[in-house]
Specification:
Chain A has 293 residues and is mostly helical. Chain A contains 11 helices and 2 strands. Helix content of chain A is 76%, strand content 2%. Chain B folds into 2 domains: 183 residues, Response regulator (Rossmann fold, 3-Layer(aba) Sandwich); 154 residues, Response regulator (Rossmann fold, 3-Layer(aba) Sandwich). The chains are: A mainly alpha (293), B alpha/beta (431).
Chain lengths: 293, 431
């Protein structure tokens, strides 16, 4: 294959990775930005989204598109509810102390993973894509669904940005982030905000998973990779910065696509990890860490 | 409460009672198994190292069913040496470290006579040294060349399935003469895939063909499109073998990549589609492509009686799926090895007059003395020869073509096609 089409394929693959990564990492970044909680179980929310999408695809009759639309709505709600519950039952009782919440979310990770193993089983199961058309370029074919994933992810990110920047809910979240005590003094129910933010973070991870699952299949161990990559993205972008997260996701996704296509996927992982190390040494707050949100 | 306990001192009667009970227990045969087993009807316990979870889970599910079905057949026919047989399944998570632990647990805590069943080669390679330490026979079903290469030890044998070196060598002439001589290989980047890379490349060269590109993919990979541009345009045959939970994604993305454009001939190992329905959406492009099958998934027109018996015993329909759930497709090309290995254990124990763990060495020697296995209910996949020096079995391989959404056998190799010079003589090693 000649260089031009080769590069095009690399960039398209990179865009898909970026899109999903941005959605998953935004949830992680949001939770840290507002709650100051490093959620190690974030990858498991991703996995739960994919696994629950499989259940929805089994239960909802009719064409795959109907089941997929149902999964897009139901799975983030379901995972968000679990996240909110985890916040109220576990994190709140620990007063959101950083060390304690890290240990608690590690525990949560294992509970969710083993629960999925028990109730869903050890197999990878496919979820049918809502549509199956292929874009046939002169050099190679490409899944039309993958292109749709990129568009959907961009829309959702726009929605999250609007929610945070333009809506009353976003205002309350930002106020809570800025100063928890003062927000409380102004009558904001901080507990509810925290539960909501944790649910939103989990829901976004689940949404990313529902989008990716027709490409990847649902499996109980699938949460590890997104967790690692999400952490890489938020560290580079700056924990708590929405813009930084999106830019870092694009950076990591595209470089991953290009490097792994032209050289080797292992090299792409090495470069990403090296980048994290460099950022931590020279700019510990991340590229956009100063400007919160 | 406490005062009563403190106040209770043993009296003469209770002491005598206790002594009598102890003596009675000592007199029971189970206390001295070595002396009593000649008359024992205690079950023979076989350990099964099972990939119930982890990347080998779909194999594990079917290996458990196959072994259980074989066990029922075995016990209904009177067990081994007149004793009933039990199998203890233990999950190794398809993980080499867990594999060695599970082996130790089965051999020492559960007192299994033999351990068998492992498929994934990294687990086998990680576990085999433990088998030699504990001096417990380890009968693997892994296809890897590591047994016959001399890398493992006297206690590790592979009597139930042909190794990769023999498989690819026996098929290479057909591939180069029928499909093409310029070949690109896609394989998983670990021991099993490296066997494919090394031996198929050599076998193709011996036929006057050439492998023009090797593409190694980590077995835990979930996205594959990015690897495909490396396939050179002049490739005549694409040879693929993948394992792990993402095999369906692999084949689907391959189909997307070639789309409706021109593509090379495709020759795959069925590993890339084990436990996956060929009628899955996105796999239509496989029509006309070829697969290696250790054992044909779809019941062939000339299926033997033993084949039918085997299918019925496990509960597999004519399409290679569970009779209770047509969506639950079997790992049919490989799982016969669990069945056949069990019957090799039976034959070995009967030939050696196996009584108990003290006879483990005799069992290994009895299996080493075997030379061939006849096709039949004990060996439904077909006749095999066994090389006691290299601890390796050699069987027939099938090449099938996807025709009308089903795999139809178009070529079967002979046993001789798969022979190669011995690389080790385990019988010269000490126990």
């Amino acid at each position: 294959m000649s260089f031009g089409p080769f590069l095009l394929l690399a960039l398209m693959e990179g865009m898909v990775t970026s899109a999903v990564l941005a959605l998953a990492a935004v949830g992680l970044s949001l939770v840290f930005g507002i709650m100051r909680v490093v959620n190690v179980a974030h990858g498991e929310f991703f996995m739960l989204g994919a696994v629950s999408a499989w259940f929805v695809s089994q239960w909802v009759p009719g064409p795959p598109a109907v089941a997929f639309a149902a999964a897009l709505i139901l799975c983030p709600l379901f995972v968000g509810a679990i996240a909110a519950l985890a916040d109220m039952v576990v994190l709140k009782r620990l007063n959101y102390e950083p060390e304690a919440t890290i240990v608690a979310t590690i525990g949560l990770l294992y509970i969710l993973q083993q629960a999925a193993l028990s109730f869903y089983g050890p197999d990878a199961r496919p979820v049918p894509a809502p549509f199956n058309f292929r874009v046939q370029l002169p050099w190679f074919g490409y899944s039309g669904y993958k292109i749709a994933v990129v568009a959907a992810s961009a829309l959702v990110l726009l929605g999250v940005w609007r929610l945070l920047a333009k809506s009353r809910v976003g205002l309350i979240m930002r106020a809570t982030q800025y100063d928890r005590e003062t927000a409380r003094a102004f009558g904001i129910n901080v507990d509810r905000v925290y539960a909501g933010v944790f649910a939103l973070g989990g829901g976004l991870a689940a949404l990313a998973a529902v989008l990716i699952v027709p490409i990847q299949q649902a499996h109980y161990l699938m949460g590890t990779d997104p967790l690692l990559l999400s952490f890489i993205v938020v560290i580079i972008g700056g924990l708590g910065s929405l813009r930084g997260t999106v830019i870092a996701a694009l950076l990591i996704g595209l470089s991953d696509g290009v490097i792994s296509t032209f050289f080797a996927p292992t090299l792409a992982k090495i470069v990403a990890t090296l980048l994290v190390a460099l950022v931590l040494v020279f700019r510990p707050q991340g590229l956009f860490g100063r400007r919160a949100l | 409460m406490t005062s009563r306990l403190i106040g209770k001192t043993p009296n003469r009667r209770s002491v005598i009672k206790g002594m009598a009970a102890g003596a009675g227990a000592l007199a029971l045969p189970s206390f001295f198994p070595g002396y009593s087993q000649a008359q024992s009807s205690e079950p023979i316990r076989l350990g099964f190292q099972l990939h119930r979870t982890g990347i080998g889970a779909s194999y594990g599910r079917w290996y458990e069913r196959t072994a259980t079905a074989a066990l029922n057949v075995l016990n209904e026919a009177g067990g081994i040496n007149g004793r009933p047989v039990e199998i203890l399944f233990e999950d190794d998570g398809t993980d080499p470290a867990r594999g060695a632990e599970v082996f130790g647990k089965l051999a020492t805590q559960s007192n299994c006579d033999v351990v068998f069943g492992a498929l994934f080669s990294h687990v086998v390679v990680g576990t085999a040294p433990r088998a030699a330490e504990l001096k417990v026979p380890y009968l693997v079903c892994s296809e890897g060349h590591h047994v016959a290469s001399g890398m493992l030890n006297r206690w590790t044998l592979q009597p139930g399935i042909t190794d990769v070196k023999s498989q690819v060598q026996s098929m290479a002439p057909w591939v180069t003469s029928t499909l093409g001589k310029k070949i690109t290989m896609v394989f998983p980047d670990y021991a099993f895939g490296h066997d494919h890379r090394d031996f198929f490349t050599a076998a193709v060269a011996a036929q006057g063909g050439e492998v023009i590109k090797h593409i190694a993919i980590p077995p835990t990979e979930t996205s594959f499109t990015r690897y495909f541009p490396q396939i050179p345009a002049e490739t005549e045959v694409l040879y693929h073998v993948m394992v792990g939970p993402a095999v369906l994604t692999f084949v689907k993305e391959l189909g997307e990549f070639y789309g409706s454009g021109t593509r090379p001939e495709i020759f795959g190992f069925i590993d890339s589609l084990e436990a996956v329905d060929i009628a899955s959406p996105g796999l239509e492009f496989l029509e006309g492509t070829h697969f290696w099958e250790g054992h044909p998934r779809y019941k062939q027109a000339d299926a033997s009686e033993a084949e039918v018996f085997y299918r019925t015993a496990i509960g597999v329909d004519d399409n290679g799926a569970s009779v209770t759930d047509p969506a639950d497709v079997a790992t049919y090309a490989h799982m016969f090895s669990a069945w056949e290995t069990l019957f090799v254990i039976k034959a070995g124990m009967e030939a050696s007059g196996y009584q108990g763990p003290a006879d483990r060495q005799k069992l290994v020697e009895a299996i080493e003395a075997m030379t061939d296995f006849a096709e039949g209910n004990d060996h439904p996949q077909g006749a095999k020869t066994f090389n006691g020096k290299t601890h390796q079995a050699f069987g027939h391989q099938s090449i099938s073509q996807v025709q009308g959404g089903k795999l139809i056998r178009v070529h079967q190799t002979s046993l001789e096609d798969g022979y190669y010079p011995d690389e080790v003589d385990y019988t010269s090693q000490s126990f």
